[in-house]
Structure formats: structure tokens, C-alpha cells
Write a structure and sequence with these properties.
12 helices, two-stranded antiparallel sheet, eight-stranded mixed β-sheet, D-Maltodextrin-Binding Protein, domain 2, 12 strands, 3 domains, Arc Repressor Mutant, subunit A, elongated
């Protein structure tokens, strides 16, 4: 008995018509009838009653049908599992992330993933969170780290899981005067101060300008249009202040000034398209990401002002 014979049988049983079944299977009707006869001879019983042109299941056919469907489903499951295991040996993961995360969280996660799956090719698409969301929604990424909540239509197209909430802080050059003489900074303290600003498409640009406008003023840009490394370099050169995530500030070597309560925060989430199941390699990368964050939280290695939003691992 071959799986192909069972597939033919299930299709005929579902249509109750050899010609329609042959069209669905893309085979000639005489060939389909012949293969069903082969199956009946192997089983030693007729599966269909063909009296007067009507196709009905015999008792033997009725008994075989649920078993045949289960065998076909099991074979498809086995094939899918084997293919997914093969993906972990020679697959590829396309990950999108903002530069702020590529400079802080992503390297440690990718190192752990590479140690576990050294044959998987890792492709990182670095861009502003809004740009990454558009690329993910277009199907050009398997997984992405983004800033939520999402605006626009992408929110309904993507499945997201919150990971972290981190404070935004102000960084300045060590050789320059601090943004405030002592204590924490208020958004109003940024009025008329020179700011180094990210290019359009960065969530940090949107957060900063929105906070300044909510405080009643337009921010003053000393330099704008940079990526994360460029912005930190401009700040280091003393061109102005910048509002950046705490995880980036902790590694920047710059002076860090926290905001006064309620402060400014952003939420980091992992996302994939709702209509596509991520490949096995991408799902494993997400698992490694979750494990890394939980481990960092348990060992108090998350930077100050960064809070884990993930629930406990499933038992």
C-alpha cells in the first residue's frame, strides 16, 4: 500500500466522483481508476460501490477512510518535522532591529544563537523601527524587534509579544557642561538646548519631538539625520545632547542624565506576520531571545531602568 493510493482513495471518497477527483489530483481518470483497483486488490475488498454510476463507500471503504486520512496527516507532519530539522542545519533567519538594539541587545542574543546553531545564516536588517515594521509587513523579514504600540495598518497584520520597557535618558559629552546642575532632568530643561537628532523613521526622534511639543516648545536641532553611531559620535564631539535608550547609554561612555518622574520610556517587542508561521530557525531564535532576557533579569544584568515584560517560561 502506498501513500499515493491512499491519497487517491480519500479524494474519490470526498468527491464521490472519479472524473472530478482526477481533476483535483491532476491525473487521467483511467489512471486514477486503475490505481484504486490496485489498492482494492491489495486490501482484498472493494472500497466503492459503483452501481449505476453512483459512487458510494462500501463497508470496507467506510472503515478505511478515517484511517487513511490519519495516515496522510501523519505523513505530512513527519515530512514537515524533518524539513524543519533540516532548516536548523542549513537555514537562514532574517531579523530586523533598530540600531539602538543592534548596539545593545542583539549582539548577545545572536552570539548565543550562533553557539547553538552555527550552521544557520543570520541576516540582520538594521533600520528605524518604523522602517523595520514596513519591511516585516512586506514579508522581507522572518522576525523583528520593534517599538510598540504600532500605529497604522501594520498593527493588525503583525503578531507581537512585549519584551522590555526601558527608560530613555539624556547623554552628553563628559567635557561639556551637564544639561542640569544636579539631579534629574525635566523635558522643559531641553528648551533652547542643542539636540542631536536621529533621521526620520526613528522612534526616538518621534518620542523626543512629541515630548518637547507636549511641554510647549519645538526642539532645537544642532545636527539631525544621523544613525545611532553617528548620533553618539556627534554628542561625544560636544555638538549637543541626545535622548537615547538606557541600554545604549550604558555602553556609550557618555554622561548619562535620567529624566525626572514620570520620565520617558519605550516598549520593545518581538514581532512576526500573523498570516505566516515563522520558519523553525526563526522560532528557535525567538526562544533564545526569551531565554537570554529571562537569564539577564534573574542575574540583575539588565541596565537600570530596564524592566522585563515577559512572563515566566511555560512548564
Amino acid at each position: 500500500m502506498q501513500l499515493q493510493h491512499l491519497r487517491y482513495f480519500v479524494t474519490v471518497a470526498g468527491t464521490r466522483h472519479f472524473t472530478r477527483a482526477a481533476k483535483l489530483l491532476h491525473v487521467a481518470q483511467p489512471s486514477l481508476s486503475q490505481q484504486i483497483r490496485v489498492l482494492e486488490r491489495e486490501l482484498g475488498s472493494d472500497l466503492f460501490d459503483r452501481t449505476r454510476g453512483n459512487i458510494t463507500l462500501t463497508d470496507a471503504g467506510t472503515a478505511l477512510l478515517p484511517l487513511a486520512r490519519q495516515l496522510l496527516a501523519d505523513s505530512e507532519t513527519a515530512l514537515r518535522e524533518v524539513q524543519e530539522v533540516a532548516q536548523l542545519r542549513r537555514g537562514r533567519v532574517r531579523l530586523g532591529a533598530p540600531p539602538s538594539l543592534c548596539a545593545s541587545l542583539v549582539p548577545d542574543v545572536l552570539r548565543r544563537f550562533h553557539d547553538e546553531f552555527p550552521a544557520i545564516e543570520l541576516v540582520v536588517d538594521e533600520g528605524g523601527s518604523q522602517d523595520v515594521v514596513h519591511t516585516l509587513a512586506a514579508g522581507e523579514l522572518d522576525l523583528a524587534l520593534i517599538i510598540t504600540p504600532l500605529p497604522g495598518q501594520e498593527a493588525s497584520a503583525l503578531a507581537t509579544a512585549e519584551l522590555l520597557r526601558e527608560d530613555l535618558v539624556v547623554v552628553s559629552a563628559l567635557e561639556s557642561p551637564p544639561p542640569v546642575r544636579r539631579g534629574r532632568i525635566h523635558v522643559t530643561d531641553l528648551r533652547d538646548q542643542p539636540l542631536v537628532m536621529f533621521r526620520r523613521g526613528y522612534d526616538l526622534r518621534e518620542f523626543t519631538t512629541a515630548a518637547c511639543r507636549a511641554a510647549g516648545f519645538e526642539p532645537t536641532f544642532a545636527v539631525e539625520g544621523g544613525e545611532m553611531d553617528a548620533v553618539l559620535g556627534f554628542v561625544r564631539a560636544g555638538l549637543g545632547f541626545a535622548v537615547v535608550p538606557g541600554m545604549v547609554a550604558a555602553r556609550s561612555g557618555l554622561r548619562v542624565t535620567s529624566f525626572a518622574e514620570p520620565g520617558m520610556q519605550r516598549t520593545i517587542s518581538v514581532a512576526h506576520r500573523k498570516d505566516v508561521v515563522p520558519p523553525r530557525a526563526a522560532r528557535e531564535l525567538q526562544r533564545v531571545l526569551f531565554e537570554h532576557l529571562r537569564s539577564a533579569d534573574e542575574s540583575a544584568r539588565l541596565p537600570p531602568g530596564t524592566r522585563l515584560l515577559l512572563g515566566p517560561p511555560c512548564p
